[in-house]
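Dear support,

We are seeing what looks like truncated structure output for some complexes. This example has three components. We would appreciate it if you could run it in full and send us the complete C-alpha cell output so we can diff it against ours.
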Amino acid sequence: MKRSAISVGIIAMLSAGSAMAWETTLLDTDKPMAAQHITSAKLGIKAAKPFSVTTKRLHGGRQEGVTLVEIDTGAMKITVVPTRGMNVLHAVAGDVRLGWDSPVKQVVNPAFIELNGRNGLGWLEGFNELVTRCGYEWVGHPGEDTDGTLLTLHGLAANTPATKVVLSVDEKPPYTIRLKGELKQQAFKKVDFVIDTELNTVPGATEFTVHDKLTNQGDYAKEYQALYHSNFGTPLLEKDAKFAAPVREVSPFNDYAKADLPTWQTYRAPTKDYDETVYNVFPYGDDDGNTLAVLHNAKGELGVSLAFNINQLPAFSLWKNTDTEGQGYVTGLEPGTSFSYNRRYQRDLKLVPTIGPKESREFMITYTLLSGKAKVDDALKRVETIQNGRETTVREEPLVALPKH
Amino acid sequence: MKRSAISVGIIAMLSAGSAMAWETTLLDTDKPMAAQHITSAKLGIKAAKPFSVTTKRLHGGRQEGVTLVEIDTGAMKITVVPTRGMNVLHAVAGDVRLGWDSPVKQVVNPAFIELNGRNGLGWLEGFNELVTRCGYEWVGHPGEDTDGTLLTLHGLAANTPATKVVLSVDEKPPYTIRLKGELKQQAFKKVDFVIDTELNTVPGATEFTVHDKLTNQGDYAKEYQALYHSNFGTPLLEKDAKFAAPVREVSPFNDYAKADLPTWQTYRAPTKDYDETVYNVFPYGDDDGNTLAVLHNAKGELGVSLAFNINQLPAFSLWKNTDTEGQGYVTGLEPGTSFSYNRRYQRDLKLVPTIGPKESREFMITYTLLSGKAKVDDALKRVETIQNGRETTVREEPLVALPKH
Amino acid sequence: MKRSAISVGIIAMLSAGSAMAWETTLLDTDKPMAAQHITSAKLGIKAAKPFSVTTKRLHGGRQEGVTLVEIDTGAMKITVVPTRGMNVLHAVAGDVRLGWDSPVKQVVNPAFIELNGRNGLGWLEGFNELVTRCGYEWVGHPGEDTDGTLLTLHGLAANTPATKVVLSVDEKPPYTIRLKGELKQQAFKKVDFVIDTELNTVPGATEFTVHDKLTNQGDYAKEYQALYHSNFGTPLLEKDAKFAAPVREVSPFNDYAKADLPTWQTYRAPTKDYDETVYNVFPYGDDDGNTLAVLHNAKGELGVSLAFNINQLPAFSLWKNTDTEGQGYVTGLEPGTSFSYNRRYQRDLKLVPTIGPKESREFMITYTLLSGKAKVDDALKRVETIQNGRETTVREEPLVALPKH
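Here is the complete output from our reference environment:
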C-alpha cells in the first residue's frame, strides 16, 4: 500500500467492503463542494492509464450553484451532476460523445424549476442529460393520479440534489473508481425513500456502471417506479441507425406510434414534424435475467450497449425523438420498472410495484461504448444469444388506450 | 458596564428599550450569515451559567445554503432556522429532546420546495421542526378557497427565509438572550405583512419564549391566520402520555377522530395504521386570558408546557399522530387564531380574523421543559387553577362537516 | 488609445463592431458575480462626467444571492438586476426617482418564487421594478390557454436569471456604456428562445436605452409576446399628472375601466379602493414607426418619455394603479407586442405574433428623464408632431369581452 503523500488532506483511507480504497467526501452537510482536481499521480496509484477527477461549480442563469464531477478515466470523460440527482450529463471518448444536444443548454439547478409548471411538464426545462434518473415515487407522463394528485413528468429524482457525495478509488487493480451520491425523497406521511446511487468505472475504460439502491426507510409498503432515461444523439444516432435487443414483446406506446411499428428498430434522419414515437418493449433475459440493449450507427461501426437485468428492470421504453436537430434529435433507451404512461394507467399493467418497509431494490446498468465493427458485432451476437430463437410478440395495439385530447 | 474587548468587531452596544444590550446583526441585506461562535466569556458577561451562540450553514441536497443559529443557554441547546421562518428545529437539554423524528431528515431550503406540489401538500417535504410557524395569510389544509385560489398547506411562513436576523444579550441580569428575525410576506395587491419574530431565553434556562408581532403594513384590512405547530415525539410522547389544559370546549376535527374522543387526552403507543386524530380545543384562560397546555409522559415525570394567552391565540389544535415511529410518532400542541381546516371553512366559525391597516397582532408562547414530577405537578395544578371548576363542553360532532372524498 | 493600467485584471480590450471598447465579463458559467467598483478613472476614460459601475450581491430572505449592477452615469444611477431578467430596478437622478414603491420590498431571487402559486399570480411576490420584462412565450393575465395549460402572469422573463453579463465602454466619445445580459428560455419540445438584452447609456446622461434581441433558436415557428412593464410612482405620478402619446385608438381594458375613459389621460391622487384601470392604446408612429409616450407631473415640470417603434411594439397598455400609496401608487407605460389579456384572448386580436426558426425580433425603448418645463414641452410637442392631426378612435367597449367571475 505504497502511496505518495497527499497534500490536500482530504483523502482518507477506508475499508470499503473487503478491499482497501481511497475515499474522500466531496459534499456533505458540513462540507460544501469545493473545486478539486484529484489525479492518480497524486493518489500514488500506478494504473496503466492515468486518471483524474475534477469538481467544479457553475454560475449564471439557472446554473447558479450547480456542481459537476468529471471522471476522466484516461479514455473517457464522464460528467456527473450531483445537483441534479447524480445524473450523467455526458460521457466523451475522443470524438465520440455519449449524450445529445438538447435545446436546454444550461445544467439547471432544481431551485429554478417548477416541476408543477407547464401543467406538470416543468421537468422539460432541465432535460438534457445522457442518463436522467426518473422516479422513484412515480415515472411517466404528467397527469392526475386516481386520487386527483397531479403527478409531474417523470418524478422528482432528476431534480433532487444529492445530500452526500463520496469518491473512492480501490487501491488494487483494477483500481475501480466509484462516485457515490445519496438522494433523499422524503415527505412527511408520503414517502421516505433513500437512493444510494453509484457510478463506477475503471482507469482506461470507455464504459461505466450505474448501480443504485432504493430503500424504503418508512414503515409502510409504498408504490415505486424507476426508469433510466438514457439518451443518445449524434454520432450514434443517424439515418438508418439501429436498435437491437432480445425482445419478448413490443407494442406502440400510442396510436401515433402504430404507423412506424414495422420499422421500429430503425431510425430516421432528422425529420421535421416527426415529434416522437415510443415503443414499449419487454425484453428477454438469459437464465439469470441479464439482457442487453444495443444502439448502433448505420454502418454498424459505432454503438453503445446497455447491460441490465430484467428482474430489476423488466420494462424497456424505446423513445425515438427523431425530429430536427434543433428540436432535439435523440433516442432514449429506457430500462425501467415501468413504461412512460402516467402511473394511473400502469397499475392495471402490473407495472407499479410496491416496496415493503425497510426493503431495498437494486438497479444496475452498464453503459459500454462500442468502438468499431467488431465490438458492435459482438454486442449484436450477445443479443441474438439471449434471444436464442425465442419468439417476439408484436402487439399492434398500445397497452393503454389513452384518452383523446 | 465593564466588558472585555470584542475582537470580532461585530458586536455593538445599543439601547434596546430601556435596558442596555449587546447586539449584533447576524444577517442583513449587505451581510451574509457567517460562521460564528459567540460566548458569554467573549462578551464579558458574568452570567451564572456560561452560554454561547453558534451559527452555521448547511450543505448538500435540499439543505444547500440553509443557516442555523444554535443558542446554548448552558442548560438547553435551542436551534433556530432563519432560512425556514425562524422555526425552532429542536431544543435539547441533556438527554431530553424537545422535537421529533420526522421522515424528513434534511433542513430544507425553501428554494427547493414547491408548496403547490402534491396538490398543495409540498410543505410536507420540509416539515420536521419543534416549532413550525403556520400563516400568516392562511393556515390549514390545502384546497381551494371560495374564490378558487389553491391555498397550500399551512401558508408560507415556514418557507419564508428571514430577511434580517439580530442577536442581542441584555447587559444586566437575567442577561436575556434574544434572537430576532424579520419575515416579509409581501405580494403586490395581495398582502404586505411583516412578522417580527423573537425567540428569547436566559442563561441556564430550559425554557424559551417565542414572541412574534405581525404587522399589516398595507392600507387595507386583510384576513390573517396564525398557528404555532409545536411538535413533540419521544421521550415526552409515549404510551399513556397525557395532555392537559383548561378546556372550555373540545370536538373531533373530523369523523375519524370521533372514535377516540373519550380518550382524547391520552396517547397511544406507536400504532400502525393509526394515521392521525385531531381535536379542536377552545381553552379557558385566567382573568387575563393566560392559559397553559401541558404534555407529559406516562409517569408524569417529564413534560413540557406551553403558556400563551387565549386573547391572542383562542383556538388550540391537539394533533395526535401516534402512528409508527418511522411514519413520525408525534403530537402537535398548536395554539392558533384558527384550527386546521381550510380557510374557506373557518370563516363561518369566526376563526378568520382581519387585521386593519398598520395594525399589529402579537403572539407569545413560552415553552418550558418540565423535568421531574414536581414540575409536572405544578403545571397540572396551574391548569386546574385556570379551569377553576368551569365546565368542559364535549361536542361529539366536528365543527365542520367536511366533504367526503 | 492611451489608458491607465488596470490593476483588477478583468478588463480587456475588444473590438465591438467597428468601435474599440473596454469589455469585461461580470458573470458567466465559470465566473460568479464578484463585488466590483469600476470607475472611468480606473479605465482611463476622460469623459466629461466621471462615471462608475458597481456590482453587489444581496443577502437575507428571498434576496439571498441576488446580484445588482449599478451604473452611475454621473447624473443618474441606474440599477439593473441580472438575477431577475436584467430588469431595471430603478433609476435615480438627484432627488428624482424613476421607479415606484411596491409593497414588495425585497429584490426577490426567482429560486424563492412559485410562479404557479396563487393560481398563477406568484409573479406578484417579486414585482417592484421600474422596467420589468414580460414574455417571451406569453404575457398577460394568468389563466388556462386554449390547450388547458396554465399560463402564469406575464411569463417567465422577469424571473429568468441572466446566464452571462458583460459590461463594455466605448473608447471614443460618447463613451457609450453597455450592459449586456443573456436570458435563456428553453424547455425541451416547448421553446428555445434566447434574449440578448442590452441597457446602454452615456456618461452624464439622465436617459438609457433598453435594446433587446429575441431569437428563436429552434427549428419551428413559435408564438411569442413581449411587453415592457415600465412603472412610475412619485414624484412623476401625482394628482393631475398626465399621459400623452399620439393615439390611433384607445379602449378600456375591461368594463371597470369604462367609467374613467373620458379622463383616461389624467391621473387621480392616491384613491382608496380604486384598484386599477387599464387602457389599451394603439399609438401612431411617424413615417418610420417611431413614437413617443410621455408621463409628466401636474405642473408639467417633470416627466419621463419612452421612445419606441410601433413596428416593434404596436400595442401599448396604460396601467393606472392609482390606489393608495401603501397599495402601490403606480402607473405602467407598457409598450408591447400585445396587451395584458391572457394569450388565449389575444389570438383573435392578431396580437400573438409568431417568430420563425432562427429569426430574431428587436425591441428598443429609450427612457428619458424630462427635467424642467422646457423638456416636458419639447416632448409633448414631439407627440403632437407625430399625431399630426390624425384622428383618435375612442372605443367605448373593451376589445375582449372577458367572462364575469
